[in-house]
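Handout, page 2. Input:
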Amino acid sequence: MFKFSPLLATGLVAFLVLPGCANSAPPAPEPAPAADQTSTPTEAPAPVADGAILRTGSWQDAEHPTSGTVTIEETDGDRVLILSEDFKTDPGPDLTVVLHKAPNILEVTDPPAYGIQEGDYILLDLLASPTGEQTYAIPADVDLETYQSAAIWCREFNATFGVASLITP
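Output:
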């Protein structure tokens, strides 16, 4: 038997119903190709997709063992700092997530606490958990060129648990 495709059937109906409009109407847009066909794109590539990674880094121990990775991503104009699912640090009081101006906090602070100075960091939020994937909003007015690293910091005792230098991938 002969099979009609939906496109062929639509064209036949249009020809039979609207014979006087064939030459005066603008051409109809071409339908999307069927799943088994391929097409060549004729438009420019789409802009960078949401979820673009702006910065990334690996955690280093400071006063306490800290491991995993950290990324800063942008989605719909909002930037977030994401701790990886393998993130881990010791539990502690008043732990926070901060961005710091120094590329390597360990080089500009003193052991064993690696205390940080007011004005050198911006506090993002309290650490939700000492393990696992977590996301923290970065305020729109924060200049990522100014803040070169991330840290898990105990505000109560001014002790840095772990640090990560943030680099552009």
